[in-house]
Amino acid sequence: MISNVIGVGIFTSPGIIAQMVPHPIGMLSVWLAGGLLAFAGAMAYAELAALRPRSGGEYVYLREAFGPLAGFLSGWTSFVAGFSGAIAAGAIAAADYLGRFIPAAGVTEPLARLPLGIVTLTVSPRALVAIAAIAALAAIHVRGIGPGRLVQNVLAGGKVAALLVFVALGLAVGQGTWAAPAPGQGIVPTSWLLALVPVMFSYAGWNAAAYVAEEIRDPGRNVPRALALGTLGVVVLYLGINALYLYALPVEEIGALNAQGQIAIADAAARRLLGASAAGLLGAVTIVILLGSLSAMILAGPRVYYAMAQDHAFFPAAARVHQRFRTPAVAIVAQAAWSGLLVLSGTFNQLLTYTGFAVVLFSGLAVSALFVLRYRRPDEPRPFRAWGYPLAPGVFALASLVIVVNAIMREPGPSAWGLLLMASGVPLFWWLRRRS
Question: How far is CA 144 from CA 40, 299, 329, 354, in A?
Answer without folding.
Answer: 32, 10, 9, 33
